[in-house]
Amino acid sequence: MNITINYEQEIVKSTAYEAVIEQVCTEAAIVYGLGSHTEISVLLCHNEYIHSLNKQYRQIDRPTDVLSFALNEGESSDYDGPDANLLGDIVISLEKVQEQADEYGHSFERELAYLTIHGMLHILGYDHMTPEDKLEMRKEEEFILQRLGYVRAGEAL
């Protein structure tokens, strides 16, 4: 899997953030059989930037933690195109990562891993609009996070 990580502002660039994102995306690629020609793009930003995207694309006038933009939404899952399978874009607010890590009492890395897999699952077609869908998506998120050792405080591997 090819993973491109960009930053809204270069001053926040971190190899630690990139390592978490690459680990989660690579694990998802393995688990979901995405193949080596699959590409995903991740943008790390601040609340102000994700707020503007949330307002523009979802008509929700506040910052959010993660947004996903699938490039193949509504298309058949049978891929028959060029060598690269472009999945889409994930946008993550680093400020929300920190806020939610503090709120839930776990590490910044665990929250970043969670938001990465959450965004990736949206790209792959998962959603949480119904209780059943939410339960299925949560199960998939926790499966990937547990495989990588990103468990909540007090949880066993």
UniProtKB/TrEMBL annotation:
InterPro entries: MetalPrtase_cat_dom_sf_prd, YbeY, YbeY_CS. Zn(2+) binds at H118, H122, H128. GO terms for cellular component: cytoplasm. Pfam families: YbeY. Its cofactor is Zn(2+). Keywords: Cytoplasm, Endonuclease, Hydrolase, Metal-binding, Nuclease, Ribosome biogenesis, rRNA processing, Zinc. One of its GO terms (molecular function) is RNA endonuclease activity. PANTHER family: ENDORIBONUCLEASE YBEY, CHLOROPLASTIC. HAMAP family: Endoribonucl_YbeY. This is Endoribonuclease YbeY. It comes from Megasphaera paucivorans.
